[in-house]
Design brief:
Layout (H helix, E strand, L loop, with lengths): L2 E4 L8 E5 L10 H7 L5 E4 L3 E3 L2 E3 L3 E3 L2 E2 L1 H22 L6 E6 L1 H12 L6 E5 L17 E7 L7 H13 L3 E7 L7 H12 L2
Parallel strand pairs: 2-3, 2-8, 8-9, 9-10, 10-11
Antiparallel strand pairs: 1-3, 4-5, 6-7
Helix pairs in contact: 2-3
The protein binds D-malate.
Length: 200
């Protein structure tokens, strides 16, 4: 997958996996990684799917309606890419924290829903519930920060709470932070994520 890898100064820090929103690319979230942890390695990956020229991580049938088969396939593809990248760049595969926005947060949530050891934790900006009606792996020891919008037109607050409940039901530790600026990724929520990260 097309990506940027930046080796960090401190090997004991997690590797930050950056996952952009629809129409973004691997350069978008680099300034956020800088705010979260200047010393961590960064792996920023571009989604492999194109929707009218806009990169995404999986296909959708309509806004908010996911192509489940493609979601499952792309989640596996990303997880395998992360395994290969860990070998190539020699980072600890078991110490990876995703930072995703919108479609990127949705594929990060899907990694958590499908693979027990894909991520150590995740910062999810405006995520949705990636799939319903499946058993999640045991996510004991995983920490998740959700930044959600009280007036997010793409992900209503009930869905953010549903995601929290599903992850907590699988034993993940989840913190939810509320903003009221729709689906926007705000500096305030990045700062809240940064505080959460510093307590890990
Ligand atoms: C998605 O398709 O993942 C969500 O609708 C968010 C987005 O607009 O990318």
């Amino acid at each position: 997958m097309k990506h940027i890898f930046q080796k960090g100064k401190d090997h004991n820090k997690p590797t930050l996996l950056l996952l952009h929103g629809t129409g973004g690319d691997e350069s978008n979230l680099l300034p956020i990684a800088e705010i979260i942890d200047k010393e961590a390695s960064v792996l920023s990956v571009r989604g492999n799917v194109l929707e009218n020229g806009m990169p995404r991580y999986f296909k959708r049938l309509a806004e908010g309606v996911f192509d489940e088969e493609d979601l499952i396939f792309r989640t596996k593809e990303l997880n395998e890419f992360l395994n290969q990248a860990a070998q190539k760049y020699e980072f600890n595969r078991n110490n990876m924290i995703a930072i995703g926005y919108s479609n990127g947060a949705n594929i990060a949530a899907s990694l958590l829903f499908h693979y027990q050891d894909a991520l150590k934790g995740a910062i999810l900006h405006h995520p949705m519930v990636p799939r319903r009606g499946i058993d999640l792996p045991d996510l004991s020891g995983k920490s998740v920060f959700i930044a959600a919008g009280t007036n997010d037109p793409i992900c209503p607050p009930e869905e953010s709470e549903e995601l929290q409940t599903l992850l907590e039901g699988a034993n993940a530790k989840v913190e939810i932070h509320w903003e009221n600026r729709g689906h926007q990724l705000t500096l305030e929520e990045v700062e809240a994520a940064s505080k959460w990260y510093s307590r890990l």
